[in-house]
């Protein structure tokens, strides 16, 4: 193909690539691939031509654009975890506190009721679960429920269930927070009655060392999801100076950020329950170290670090 014909055939495409910068990564990659093909052809048949230099420069420009997008995407993810999510948490520490107090109050109510009437636990956890646990206790394996043979299948099942429960807690906020409060009530009652049931069987501290290996992150996720639901509910009930729809959009967006922040917690909690909790006879030091590490992380990342980051940014603004 003559050089003139080659240029005439492709010049419109090249100009489009040069002056209409693509923003979609897939489109940008497609343009780069086509330019590399054209450049290869041009280098083969017109190595000293200006069109070869032109295509080389244009391909380099698009390549740098792809690299820049990848670098910015990576930086965006890092900024989300380092700054954006913690500052969102700091903004809604009040809702997080409310969710914690509600959940804890319901758990204490259930614990008191179970201590007064042991049949109460059956109404909360169900007869089948209580009878299965009592059978496991009689066989000398009170935590046998965590010893499913297929570890990976158990991990996936637990992870999906954690996501489902937390998502329902969050979505309940769209019902003027009523749904969120109800879900916190249900889960708080289950925890309180469950834990008290084992204390009444003289296995309370043993259950803490076993169940809370994964339960620390699992329960924390429910409470944080509860705060996300309350954020949405409050954005509807108390829009302030904003239009209610605008307030809802902002609340839903911020609540969703908290839910995204829970994804690693879901995964780690499910991993611990599926692969670690089954070893109920693990050394106490190991169990305590996992429990303390999980609790310390939650307190640091969702309470202390957001406060520290907020104060640091405030000082920078005042300078």
Write the layout of secondary structure elements.
Elements: H1 3-19, H2 25-45, H3 50-91, H4 93-116, H5 120-125, H6 127-138, H7 151-171, H8 178-200, H9 204-237, H10 244-261, H11 263-276, H12 284-318
Could you please describe the fold and organization of this structure?
With 319 residues, this protein is mainly alpha-helical. The chain folds into 2 domains: 3-78; 92-318, no CATH class. The protein has 12 helices and no strands. It is elongated.
Number of domains: 2
Low-pLDDT windows of residues = none
User: What is Rg?
Assistant: 28 Å
Largest sheet: none
List keywords for this structure.
about 325 residues, mainly alpha, 2 domains, 12 helices, about 0% strand
Summarize the structure.
The protein is mainly alpha-helical and 319 residues long.
């Amino acid at each position: 193909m003559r050089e003139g014909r080659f240029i005439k055939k492709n010049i419109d495409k090249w100009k489009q690539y040069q002056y209409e910068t693509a923003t979609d990564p897939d489109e940008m990659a497609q343009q780069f691939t086509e330019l590399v093909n054209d450049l290869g052809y041009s280098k083969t048949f017109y190595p000293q031509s200006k069109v070869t230099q032109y295509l080389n420069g244009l391909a380099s420009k698009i390549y740098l654009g792809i690299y820049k997008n990848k670098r910015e995407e990576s930086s965006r993810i890092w900024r989300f975890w380092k700054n954006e999510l913690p500052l969102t948490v700091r903004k809604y520490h009040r809702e997080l506190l409310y969710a914690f107090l509600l959940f804890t109050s319901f758990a204490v109510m259930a614990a008191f009721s179970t201590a007064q009437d042991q049949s109460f636990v059956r109404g909360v956890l169900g007869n089948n679960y209580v009878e299965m646990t009592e059978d496991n206790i009689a066989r000398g394996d009170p935590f046998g429920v965590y010893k499913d043979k297929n570890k990976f299948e158990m991990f996936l099942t637990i992870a999906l269930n954690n996501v489902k429960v937390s998502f329902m807690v969050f979505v309940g906020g769209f019902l003027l927070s009523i749904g969120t409060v109800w879900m916190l009530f249900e889960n708080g009652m289950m925890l309180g009655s469950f834990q008290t049931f084992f204390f009444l069987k003289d296995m309370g501290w043993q259950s803490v060392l076993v169940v809370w290996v994964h339960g620390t992150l699992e329960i924390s996720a429910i409470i944080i999801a509860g705060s996300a639901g309350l954020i949405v509910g409050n954005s509807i009930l108390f829009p302030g100076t904003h239009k209610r729809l605008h307030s809802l959009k902002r609340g839903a967006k911020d609540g969703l950020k908290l839910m995204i922040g829970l994804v690693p917690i879901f995964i780690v909690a499910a991993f611990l329950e599926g692969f670690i909790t089954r070893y109920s006879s693990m050394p106490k030091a190991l169990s305590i170290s996992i429990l303390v590490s999980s609790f310390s992380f939650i307190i640091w990342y969702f309470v202390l670090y957001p406060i520290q980051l907020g104060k640091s940014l405030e000082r920078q603004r005042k300078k």
